[in-house]
Amino acid sequence: MNKRSLSLNSLLAGLIALAFMGLAHYSPCFLDQVERLSYDAVTRLSLTDTPVDQRILLIEIDQKSLDVLGPWPWPRDLIARMVRLAKGNGAKVIGLNLPLLGEERDSGLREIRTLKDKLLAHALSRQDEELLEWMEENLKELEEKADRDLELVEAVGEAGNVILVAMTALPPGQVKRKREERAFLSRETLSEKEGVSSGKSNRRAEELYLPFSKLARAAMGFGHNDLLLHETTEGMACPLFVNCRGSLFPSYALRLALAYWDQVPSKAVVEARQLRVRSESIPLWEGKLLVKYHGGFSHIEKLSFSDVLGGQKRPSMKGRIVLIGRALGEEGKTLRTPLGTAVSEDHFNGLVLDNLLNRRYLTRPGFMVFAEWGVLFLLGLSGVLLFPRIGQLPRLGLTGALAAAIVVSGFLLLARWDLWFRISYALLCLLAIYAVVSVSQWIFGVKISRESIETNRLLGLNLQSQGLLDLAFEKFRRLPLDPETKDLMYSLGLDYEQKRLINKALLVYEYVNRGGGFRDLDARIPKLKQVDKSSTVGTPIKAREPSALEEPVPEELTRIGRYEILQVLGRGSMGLVYKALDPKINRLLAIKTIRFSDEFDEDVIQEIKERFFREAEIAGRLSHPCIVTIHDLGEEQDFTYMAMEYLEGDNLEKFINKKNLLPLRKVLSVVASVADALDFAHRAEVIHRDIKPANIMLLKTGGVKVTDFGIAKAISSSRTRTGVILGTPNYMSPEQIMGQKIDPRSDIFSLGVVFYQLLAGELPFQGDNLSSLLYQITQVKHPPLRSFNPRIPLACEQIMEKALAKNLEERFQSAGQMAKLLRLLALKVDQKQKKIAVDKEAASKN
């Protein structure tokens, strides 16, 4: 490798490392998503069999509870009964993760209160104080029985250990709380060191919304439950506090833990990278707790609300934290976890509590950023000093080893020491350095190699054109022995043959044949050796019988005109089709030969040839992406040839079998492209006359080409030796069969037949013999297309019907009309498929 390439590769590697160091500092979203994928994978691999903390119990309002106790929202007395049940069974802390912002709207309770107020205000009621007192006492008792909010307030107040949820956003239909309720929040603020609340990492909330006043006054405390973080951190971190109006308020899980530890929120002190409670230090990452998952995560004890309330399940609650909430969260909200599962908010809060109570959490110390930068720096150093100086295979092996070391290091740090090291940045940096250095080296290497190869190739061709064949051979031998070089050598060998230098031609052919058989060399070399042997014993060449090499049969042609024949591609109705090379411009061609003498009487051959050249010349002027290009016409010995564009692909005969039909969308595109080509030709007053699957090529690139323009018209009106029809009767239009005047609508009918066959795998008109077939085409209606495949759109069948109309006036009047309708139908198919895909995606999410 030259110094310039080495310096460039080193520079690129260094720049990549610097770029990733910058990205690691700013953490762009797309890289965080990649990191989340790697984090999830490492988390799953590092799961331990640690049992879950038995001090946590989830009582879920699941579907079973809704079926038994009725749809949500429930009467508040049901919640009150569960609170009393938990307290009565010895629960140390009770968490209510339920939307209890407003009072219940009970119309009966309102009527009782209205009646009470009216009686007390009525003047007559004051005349009998004893009656008034009795009525007031009974109404009050009735009011208390109907007031289910009061029952819940009393249950929460009597328990004295209930933690409620403070919401950061109001659900639809809810109104903001009164200002006096803010006083309840004052006792819930955490202590903080100076400057923490102003840090960029703290999660903020514009407002916190508490339950209605009476319930808020009765509760032990509150905690926010804002768990739906950015998608890259959802389920992997929990914000332990939010900053609201300059004060820090604990999360629901932290408030439960503080209550369990018999601590008030003010005893918890928030610092820059940790939260201190008693003598405990809880590590923080950007104000969040990195949650540690373990094997017992899915085994947190969960019970159905209805089973516990109805007495079917009697769990021990003594000294435990009882979490009461919705199984799927309010409005079906769930959290995506690194384990690939979705859990309810209370399930996730249970895991956070498990982490807090048992000091199980991940950490990301401040030095970890510098450690990651250090790794990126070392990778950059390797890219600058090592990667450009070693070969491709050693570089690949080194990249694999470094990648494995990074992954294993990240796994061990997480699994053994609970340290989160972001491996995705290092892995992407490593892969980028490898890719850039490898591609750069390849480009430089290819450029140098190509320059040398191209120089020798041009020198060799120049020497060959001057007749200096020996020097040309020396230049060609410096080229890699690929198919292109073999072609050059083969041409050189033919030149030796023409000069009767058989021994040198053999030398060239044997050199070419070292890499395996090429063209006809396996047969040609023995024949040349025989010729060389006979010439060396003194037999004059003129006295020998013509060999197969000197007078080749058509299948063994080596040249047609100036074109070198490479191989036979196929056999048409009137001759062979060859793959050939134009040596002047090194272009591949397809050469179609036509032997008029095999099919026509001698007295009309000259007339047919003239008409053929005239029509082929007109067709050759057609320049359209879907029409094959004709490059040359000529005569050679006893046949006529046409040199045209070489196409790589298959004709449509491959796709008219029922077992190998193309998709509907592809058929519409192919037929529309052919219709466009026909419309272009018709506007140029050129009619094809022989549209059939064999004359339509589906290219490997996905494009479509129509072949054989001009041939059919040249021969269609001439008689053959055998009197048979030249062409393909299955695809002929009725007017073509009956010998009437042909116009562009005849091609439309033929295209309709091809369209039908591509979709049905059957011809629309079939007969036991030629007479029966011609009768079917001219007199009988084809079978309905949807009888073969009912899933074909009705619009598709209607287009088919119009294309195959026997009456010219009922058929499409131009191929462009047909193409337009086909493309509209294709657009409808695309829209339908897109809608189906969207519906499936939506169904899978639900």
What does this molecule look like?
A hairpin with a 2-residue loop joins strand 11 (274-277) and strand 12 (280-283). Strands 6-3-2-15-1-14 form a 6-stranded parallel beta sheet, sandwiched between helices. It has a 6-stranded antiparallel beta sheet with strand order 19-20-21-22-24-23, covered by helices on one side. With 846 residues, it is of the alpha/beta class. The radius of gyration is 44 Å and the shape is elongated. Helix content is 47%, strand content 13%. The chain folds into 4 domains: 3-49 and 365-446; 56-104 and 159-359, no CATH class; 107-146; 559-833, Transferase(Phosphotransferase), domain 1, CATH 1.10.510.10.
Q: What would the keywords be for this entry?
A:
single chain; 846 residues; alpha/beta; 4 domains; six-stranded parallel beta sheet; six-stranded antiparallel beta sheet; 47% helix; 13% strand
Layout: helices, strands, pairs:
Blueprint: H1 3-26, H2 29-45, E1 56-61, H3 63-69, H4 76-88, E2 93-97, H5 107-121, H6 129-146, H7 148-159, E3 162-166, H8 182-185, E4 191-192, E5 203-204, H9 213-218, E6 221-224, E7 237-239, E8 241-244, E9 247-250, H10 252-260, E10 269-270, E11 274-277, E12 280-283, E13 288-291, E14 302-304, H11 305-310, E15 321-326, E16 335-336, E17 342-343, H12 345-358, E18 361-362, H13 367-385, H14 392-417, H15 423-465, H16 469-476, H17 483-498, H18 502-512, H19 521-536, E19 559-560, E20 563-571, E21 576-582, E22 587-594, H20 602-620, E23 630-636, E24 639-645, E25 649-651, H21 664-683, E26 696-699, E27 704-706, H22 711-716, H23 734-737, H24 744-760, H25 770-779, H26 794-803, H27 815-845
Parallel strand pairs: 1-14, 1-15, 2-3, 2-15, 3-6, 4-10, 5-8
Antiparallel strand pairs: 7-13, 8-9, 10-11, 11-12, 13-18, 16-17, 19-20, 20-21, 21-22, 22-24, 23-24, 25-26, 26-27
Helix pairs in contact: 1-13, 1-15, 4-7, 5-6, 10-12, 13-15, 14-15, 15-16, 16-17, 17-18, 18-19, 21-24, 21-27, 24-26, 26-27
